[in-house]
From TrEMBL:
Protein name, UniProt field: histidine kinase
Domain Signal transduction histidine kinase subgroup 3 dimerisation and phosphoacceptor: 249-314
Chemical reaction(s) catalysed: ATP + protein L-histidine = ADP + protein N-phospho-L-histidine
Listed transmembrane segments: 39-64, 70-94, 145-172, 192-215
Chain residue ranges for the region called Disordered: 1-26
GO molecular function, one term: kinase activity
Species, as recorded: Microbacterium galbum
C-alpha cells in the first residue's frame, strides 16, 4: 500500500494540530472567562466533576491495573489496555466538548487517530497513535485538574451550606454547636461564624470557577507565538509543495512535448520534404504523402490541445468543477461513474487542485492499473472543505515515485493547503482521497 498525507494549514484557532481536528471558524482574540454566566456554569461543572470525576478515574485506574496485571494472559491484558486507551479518548472527547460548550473557544471535535498503514499493522499503529495523541492527553489533564478543583468546590459548597445553616440557626433555636467538631460555639458567635462560612464558601466557589476558566484557556488555546510558529511551518510546507508541483508539471510538459508532439512534428516535416521531392516525378505519391502529413498535423493539434487542457482546463473556470469532471469522464478510456454534489462554487485554487488530482488519478488508472471501471465522488463538507474520492477496481500496488503522477497529486494538493491520501494495496483497489479548504 502507498499512503501520502500532507498537513493543511491550520487556521489560527485553538483547535490543535489539524491532523485530527478539522478546520473551524474564527475565534475572538479575547474570550471572557469571568462573565457571571460562565462563572456560574463553571461552578456547576466543577461541582458535578467533583462527584463523577473520582468514579471515572477509579474506573480508569482499575482498567489500567487489570490490563497490566493480565499481560501474562497476553490476549486478555492487551484487550483491556486497548479498551483503556479508547476509554481515555472518550474522557478526552467529553472534556473537550464540555470546555468548548462552556467557554465557546471554537475547539474542533476530537477525533480518533487513524493510521495510513494497511491491515493488522495499521490497526496496531492506530492504537499507538491514539495512545500518544497529545490532544487526548491535554484534555485528560484538563479533566484531572477540573476533578481536583471540583472536589474542592464540593467542599466549599458543603461549607457554604453548613454556614447557611448556622446563620439561620437562631430562628430555629439552635444555640450551641461546634466548629470543626472542636471549638464550641454559642450565642451570637454561631450566626457570625455561619455568615463567615457562607462568604468563604461563595468566594472559594467563585475563585475556583474563575481559575478553571484561566486553566482551560492555558491548556486548550495555544499562545500567539505558538500560532505564528505553526502558521510559518505550514506556510513553508505549502510553499515547498507549490514549488515541487510546478517542477513536476514542468517535467510532465517537457516529457509530453519531447515524446509526443515533437517527434510527430519532425515526422510531418520529413514527410512534406519527401513529398516535395516527388511532386514533379510522382504527383500521386506526393499527394499521398501530403495527405499523410495532413493527418499527422491534425493528430499533433489534438495532442497539443490535450496538453493545453492538462495545463489549464478552461471549462473548469467557465462552468465549474461538475461540468469539468463530466467532460473529463467522457474522455476517459475506462468507464467512470460520477457522483458530484456541489451546492456552490469553491475557490479556484481548491477546484483546480481537486480537478487535476482526479484527472491524474484517472490517467494513472487507464495506463497502469488495468481497471475496468472507476468511481469518482465529490462533496463539499460541513467544515467548508472540498473533498473528492477516486476508486478503481484495478490491480493496485501503486507507488509514489518522485516526479510521477501520484507525486504531482500530493504536491498540488499540498500547495492548495489540503491533504491527500493514497491507498493502493496489492490486488487493489486503488483509492485516492483529497481534501482541500474551500475558499468561498
Amino acid at each position: 500500500m502507498t499512503t501520502a498525507s500532507v498537513l493543511p494549514p491550520p487556521p489560527p484557532v485553538p483547535g490543535g494540530p489539524v491532523e485530527t481536528a478539522p478546520p473551524t471558524g474564527g475565534v475572538p482574540e479575547r474570550v471572557r472567562v469571568a462573565s457571571p454566566g460562565r462563572v456560574a456554569g463553571a461552578a456547576a461543572h466543577l461541582a458535578a466533576l467533583g462527584v463523577i470525576g473520582p468514579a471515572v478515574f477509579t474506573g480508569l485506574f482499575s482498567m489500567l491495573g487489570s490490563g497490566v496485571g493480565l499481560l501474562a494472559a497476553l490476549l486478555v491484558g492487551v484487550v483491556v489496555l486497548v479498551v483503556f486507551v479508547y476509554a481515555l479518548f472518550a474522557v478526552a472527547w467529553f472534556e473537550r466538548a464540555r470546555v468548548d460548550g462552556l467557554y465557546d473557544l471554537g475547539l474542533a471535535p476530537l477525533r480518533p487517530r487513524r493510521s495510513a498503514k494497511p491491515g493488522f499493522v495499521g490497526v496496531l499503529h492506530s492504537i499507538w497513535l491514539q495512545a500518544i495523541d497529545p490532544l487526548q492527553w491535554r484534555a485528560v489533564a484538563s479533566f484531572s485538574i477540573a476533578t481536583v478543583m471540583g472536589l474542592v468546590t464540593v467542599t466549599a459548597l458543603a461549607g457554604l451550606a453548613w454556614g447557611l445553616a448556622l446563620a439561620v440557626s437562631p430562628i430555629f433555636g439552635w444555640s450551641n454547636t461546634r466548629f470543626l467538631d472542636l471549638i464550641p460555639l454559642s450565642g451570637a458567635g454561631v450566626p457570625l461564624v455561619g455568615v463567615i462560612a457562607v462568604i468563604v464558601g461563595v468566594a472559594a466557589a467563585i475563585g475556583l470557577a474563575i481559575l478553571h476558566g484561566v486553566v482551560v484557556r492555558a491548556i486548550f488555546v495555544p499562545s500567539r507565538e505558538a500560532q505564528l510558529v505553526e502558521q510559518a511551518r505550514t506556510s513553508d510546507t505549502r510553499r515547498a509543495g507549490a514549488v515541487r508541483a510546478a517542477e513536476v508539471e514542468r517535467t510532465r510538459i517537457e516529457r509530453d512535448l519531447h515524446d509526443g508532439v515533437q517527434p510527430r512534428l519532425v515526422s510531418i516535416g520529413m514527410t512534406l520534404g519527401l513529398a516535395q521531392t516527388k511532386i514533379d516525378d510522382d504527383p500521386e505519391a506526393a499527394k499521398a504523402l501530403v495527405a499523410e502529413a495532413h493527418a499527422s498535423t491534425k493528430s499533433a493539434i489534438t495532442e497539443l490541445r490535450q496538453l493545453a487542457r492538462g495545463i489549464h482546463a478552461s471549462v473548469l473556470e467557465d462552468r465549474g468543477l461538475d461540468a469539468a469532471l463530466s467532460a473529463l469522464a467522457s474522455r476517459s478510456h475506462i468507464p467512470v461513474t460520477l457522483d458530484v454534489r456541489l451546492p456552490r462554487r469553491c475557490g479556484r485554487a481548491a477546484e483546480e487542485a481537486v480537478y487535476f488530482a482526479i484527472a491524474e488519478t484517472l490517467t494513472n488508472a487507464a495506463k497502469h492499473s488495468r481497471a475496468a471501471a472507476c468511481r469518482v465522488d465529490v462533496r463539499v463538507r460541513d467544515d467548508g472543505s472540498l473533498w473528492a474520492r477516486v476508486e478503481d477496481d484495478g490491480l493496485g500496488g501503486a507507488r509514489i515515485v518522485p516526479g510521477g503522477g501520484l507525486d504531482g497529486i500530493v504536491n498540488r494538493v499540498t500547495a492548495a493547503g489540503g491533504t491527500a491520501r493514497i491507498d493502493s494495496p496489492q490486488g487493489g483497489p486503488t483509492t485516492v482521497e483529497v481534501n482541500v479548504p474551500c475558499a468561498s
